[in-house]
Amino acid sequence: MLKMLLRLPRRNTDALIGAVAAELTSEGIELIDSTHFLKDQLPAAGTLTRRSPDDRERSDIEYGLEVAKEIARLDLGQTIVVRDRACVAVEAMEGTDAVIRRAGDLARGRLTVVKIAKPDQDLRFDVPVVGIPTIELMIASGATCLCLTAGKTLMFDRAEMIALADKNKIAITAV
Prior knowledge:
Layout: H1 2-7, H2 13-26, E1 46-47, H3 55-73, E2 79-83, E3 86-90, H4 96-106, E4 111-115, E5 129-130, H5 132-141, E6 143-148, E7 154-155, H6 158-167, E8 171-174
Parallel strand pairs: 4-6, 5-7, 6-8
Antiparallel strand pairs: 1-8, 2-3, 2-4
């Protein structure tokens, strides 16, 4: 394993996961998509909550998707937080929860969270995930909308997560 790590030109998520996958494959171990048995936990495209994103949120999603796709392409992170078409917080190694918390500290209220899968997301290992803690942090930070990648984001405790979002008038949409 150490030899494998020393050979890597980069030590970002994609390089590390790719090297582990290649090593396992070389040992005859076949890896399958980690969501294979969880397809019902991956959202289809569309609005998942009772409330759809409003015009401001749709505008923030449109802008946020541009930025999020670029940071994901660079393998920096997968989540950004936007307010009024301005990027408030960008994820790097700290993770989604920390980004939402930091965004709430910087610009409380009217925040839109955009969490996407990377262009070549390796679902054998690395799957974007949201759940009840995501919505709880959004509530605490004053976020009003969550945008996810359809078919590639696991929603843990989906029914309870959506119910909590509905109760707090948070729109969740998958694109």
